[in-house]
Amino acid sequence: MKKLKKALALVFILSISAALAACGSSSSKEIDAQALADELMEKVEFVDELSPVKSEMVPKLYGIDNAEEAYVYMGSGATAEEVAVFKFSDEQAAKDGLSKIQDYLSARKDSFANYIPGEVARLDNAVIKQSGEYLALCVSEGGTASEIISRYMG
What we know:
The protein is α+β, with helices and mostly antiparallel strands. The protein contains six helices and five strands. It has a five-stranded antiparallel sheet with strand order 1-2-3-5-4, with helices on both faces. It is globular, with a radius of gyration of 21 Å. Residues 1-27 have low confidence and may be disordered.
């Protein structure tokens, strides 16, 4: 009987250890950033026609110069609509990118408040999500962007 209790105790301890080790893992789900950006561009309805932004313009727009991947699309300026999906080297870099995106959106709201006030509501409803080393932004109408980003990023 003592051997059975010791064996059960050992199994219990090993199970708890394995569970704790799994909880300590910080690896995030791998996301295809380009596929996410492509799906947003294909399935979200935009008023404006969005075009790809050249890679050298991304740091000037967002202050983000450390992204491993960046897929950015913007309109003509007649609307605030845009799509931006980033992959960073790690989660902390993505969190820093999130802060820069929030600052960027705040500045955009100020700019559009004087330029085209109707776009401020669209900016207020922007979908922004950071998960692991990934960051996504979509400024559009409706909930399609939120659904797509949630499917990729949880």
